[in-house]
């Protein structure tokens, strides 16, 4: 589903954000990407989403070398990827329901179908009463759940979530994690960046730990040794 081979990413005038990262994520996996702030988690996700290009190395997403995907083809690749950005990236001039509907409308789904799916996903994130509100009228935690709903509404093959529970209280955190699990059970491959160790301890999933741009550990045993 995702393969990185010796990937380096260097922003101008900075220490490398990613350093010789080789990593594979199989179809159907649920993987936590962890590590301290600045370790390179967001950068890795942006590379997979084609929001940035690697400085060197190779990245395959759905078996396609992203460096060879034409800019005009990137939107098609992204249709199969749901993303929860750290800063949500909700459209401020559209309602919650319109924000969530957006990925379906881009695909040209019939209006009835869009409405049905949007209603269902808003219910599942507990926002069925907020569909007509604008994002800025919502709390940070509610905006985060809108972002999760938008990422999941199209049943993406791959979900990239950058600190999707970062602004949520423990109860809402579990609800969002349940949604990610349910999506994974339906076949979505899930990659979650988090520095919340309690999540890693609670869910027995593969953990890839980044440290200063390198893969410092990869596997289920990181939980037990507490190195994540
Ligand atoms: P994390 O998500 O683990 O906090 P990031 O991928 O955001 O890590 O950052 C990795 C490193 O790359 C940090 O040193 C950060 O300052 C730097 N970085 C991230 N984005 C940019 C950017 N757009 N321009 C320059 N440096 C960046
Ligand atoms: P975090 O490090 O908390 O994961 P992000 O990587 O999401 O934060 O960064 C937030 C925004 O700031 C992104 O648009 C990123 O490109 C930008 N950014 C991060 N670090 C730098 C940096 N050192 N210089 C310039 N832009 C940066």
TrEMBL record:
Gene3D superfamilies assigned: P-loop containing nucleotide triphosphate hydrolases
One Gene Ontology CC term in the entry: plasma membrane
Keyword flag Membrane: yes
Statement: the UniProt record of this protein carries the keyword Cell division: yes
InterPro entries associated with the record: AAA+_ATPase, ABC_transporter-like_ATP-bd, ABC_transporter-like_CS, ABC_transpr_LolD-like, Cell_div_FtsE, P-loop_NTPase
Alphabetically ordered keywords of this record: ATP-binding, Cell cycle, Cell division, Cell membrane, Membrane, Nucleotide-binding
GO MF term set: ATP binding; ATP hydrolysis activity; transmembrane transporter activity
Entry similarity comment: Belongs to the ABC transporter superfamily.
Protein name (Swiss-Prot/TrEMBL): Cell division ATP-binding protein FtsE
Record organism: Anaeromyxobacter diazotrophicus
Lineage: Bacteria, Pseudomonadati, Myxococcota, Myxococcia, Myxococcales
